Amino acid sequence: QVQLVESGGGLVQAGGSLRLSCAAAGNIFSRNPMGWYRQAPGKQRELVATFTTGGSTNYADSVKGRFTISRDNTKNTVYLQMNSLKPEDTAVYYCYYYSFGDYWGQGTQVTVSS
User: Fold this and answer.
1) What tens digit of pLDDT does each residue of 47-96 get?
2) Three-state SS at 40
3) Is pLDDT of 27 > 90?
4) What DSSP string describes 43-95?
5) What sign does the CA torsion over 57, 100, 30, 10 have?
6) What is the mean pLDDT of the chain?
7) Whose CA is closest to 108, among 13, 20, 16, 31?
8) CA–CA gap between residue 28 and residue 69 (Å, rounded)
9) Given Cys at both, which of 2, 20, 25, 68 links 80, Cβ 3.0 to 4.6 Å?
10) C-beta neighbour count of 84 within 10 angstroms
């Protein structure tokens, strides 16, 4: 079993920054896919940034150049540094991990005011 716990969400003004953290517990393999998705009200959940199998990164076009994903394998933790935030980044952000199935965190709210 895998447990994912997110932290770091909150309210920020447009142009500001936030850093999300996701701590994973359980049987974690550092080369497994892990990353971040988000879901805005009335919209489908979408990929934000992930580490793919083998460690390469994948970003949504809408966040490229503004968001950076990183990973500390000694802590089984993945981070999402979000800069130049926009109101359209407002969503619940979910941590994701894959190991013979999908695992999701409980989500953390990010609200960007204009």
Assistant:
1) 999 999 988 999 999 999 999 999 999 999 999 999 999 999 999 999 99
2) coil
3) no
4) S--EEEEEE-TTS-EEE-GGGTTTEEEEEETTTTEEEEEE-S--GGG-EEEEE
5) positive
6) 96
7) 20
8) 18
9) 20
10) 13
Q: Round to whole Å and give the CA distance between 6 and 80.
A: 10
CB distance 52 to 34 below 8 Å: no
Q: Residue 47: how many CB atoms within 10 A of its CB?
A: 14
Closest alpha carbon to 97 in 6, 42, 8, 24: 24
- Distance between CA 37 and CA 108 in Å, rounded? 11
pLDDT at 1: 87
Residue 11 has pLDDT above 90, yes or no: yes
DSSP designation for 30: T
Helix (H) or strand (E) holding 23: strand 18-26
* Average pLDDT rounded to a whole number, residues 15-30: 94
